[in-house]
Amino acid sequence: MTNQDWIRRDLSVLWHPCTQMKDHEQLPLIPIRRGKGVWLEDFDGRRYLDAISSWWVNIFGHANPRINARITTQLGELEHALLAGFGHAPAIELAERLVDITPAGLTRVFFADNGSAAVEVALKMSFHYWRNRGQTQKTKFISLTNSYHGETLGALAVGDVALYKETYQPLLMPVISVASPDCYAREAGESCADYSRRQFAEMEATLTRHADEACAVIVEPLVQCAGNMRMYDPVYLQLLREACDRHGVHLIADEIAVGFGRTGTLFACEQADIRPDFMCLSKGLTGGYLPLAVVMTTDDIYDAFYADYDTLRAFLHSHSYTGNPLGCAAGLATLDIFAEDDVLGNNRRLAQVMADATADLVDHPHVAEVRQRGMILAIEMVRDKASRAPYDWRERRGLRVYKHALKEGMLLRPLGNVIYFMPPYVITEEQIHQLVRVAREGIDIATRDCTEA
Ligand code: PMP
Predict the structure, then answer these.
(1) What pLDDT was estimated at residue 452?
(2) Is 136 exposed, middle or buried (0-12, 13-18, 19+ CB in 10 A)?
(3) Among 41, 69, 228, 416, which is most buried by a count of CB atoms within 10 Å?
(4) Beta bridge partners of 293
């Protein structure tokens, strides 16, 4: 079977995520046969360096022997059992270890099976907490512009990426929106910290005005990933934690994309030295192997639900695959790798290599900014460098980079006009240099105004 055979079969039955299927009349679909380390290989034997960790999930490479072994062992013991009324070792051990490594005070673990589901759980738990405490007027959520929290209706409602949200607006609960601290918008000469601090004034005013009706503020700590990898300073999180406490509003940290070493620390909240009331984790949790998510929360939240059955205070939320043992086994193997290897130290070195290799790209006539937080590096292409006027989205400049990268054996799926690297942590220095070379060529091609690009 060749690529062509699989493509034909694929296009006759599958409906791919986040895809205008008609694009595949021109854009080749790539059927993947196997993966190893940073590489994905198709049925014609072509290899692609997975520079975006397969949508940010894969942190220790494809077919990682340590994760494979743990899942295989677990498979011989128990593939799945319900988690209501029953428990099992992988879920218990994983929960214990997550409590150990997340900010102190996050003592309870509720499992879900993907990032969006975790966000739904956190939203419902926060709302339900206030209800159980008699504060039934608290029904609203506060979120940042340009944020992304998933695609299910609740998660979509608290997010703000128009491309994904606008169509469904009539279905979504109203949210209170506050301007993002995203430092791309800072004034010339202004530091990111100063800008983020300045942006906090609107959050403070919103909390003052809406504390009575607000359940929680939900944020992606430090990097708004799906919102074009926009970044902000940890000071915003410190101010937010303090203000949420003062106003009696929960703080939900959606670390689904930034958790597990992505931003330089194990969890992004550590850089602000804060503990949220809810922390959502997924993606890297299983090393990118299996769909699994958790919502971590505090004793205070848990206690508000702990009561006699007939008080009807319980959190009666369930997913069939809650705490799937195979997913938990992958999670345990992932945490073992963090415990046994100097992952964060190695990432610091790799992040520096990425920074050095891309340093001169800021001088490119169509690059407005090269920004980085740990193992996330983003390059923003613009039509006009001086005014930062963006390219018209219909021109699909990023797609040109994507196509060039594929020809060169790299998977660099952009976000609009933003090219980014979010590679597995097992990438080598040499591979980073290859990646940067290809991205640079792709950006040259994409920003050259010729029709055949
Ligand atoms: N929150 C954030 C910050 C994310 O980046 C994502 C996924 N890109 C989600 C939530 C949703 O996760 P999932 O795709 O597993 O539903």
Answers:
(1) 43
(2) exposed
(3) 228
(4) 112
pLDDT of residue 449: 80
Which domains does the chain possess? 3-63+342-452 (3.90.1150.10), 68-340 (3.40.640.10)
User: 323, 109 in Cβ contact below 8 A?
Assistant: no
- In what helix (H) or strand (E) does residue 6 lie, and over which residues does it extend? helix 3-13
Find the DSSP H helices in 306-393: 325-340, 343-358
Sheet with 376-381, strands from edge to edge, namely 367-373, 376-381, 418-421
DSSP one-letter code for 110:
E
pLDDT score at 45: 98
pLDDT at residue 451 in the model? 46
**What separation in Å is there between the alpha carbon of 150 and the centre of ligand 1?**
5
What is the C-alpha separation between 280 and 392, in angstroms, rounded? 34
Of 384, 351, 393, the closest CA to residue 366 belongs to 384
Gap from CA of 76 to ligand 1 centroid (Å): 31
CA of 259 to the centre of ligand 1 (A): 11
CA-55 nearest atom, ligand 1? 8
Query: Which residue ranges in the chain fall short of pLDDT 70?
Result: 450-453
Q: What is the pTM of this model?
A: 0.98
- Residues 51-73 pLDDT 10s: 999 999 999 999 999 999 999 99
Give the pocket of ligand 1 (CB within 6 Å). 114-116, 119, 148-150, 220, 225-226, 254, 256-257, 282
CA of residue 35 to ligand 1 center, whole Å? 23
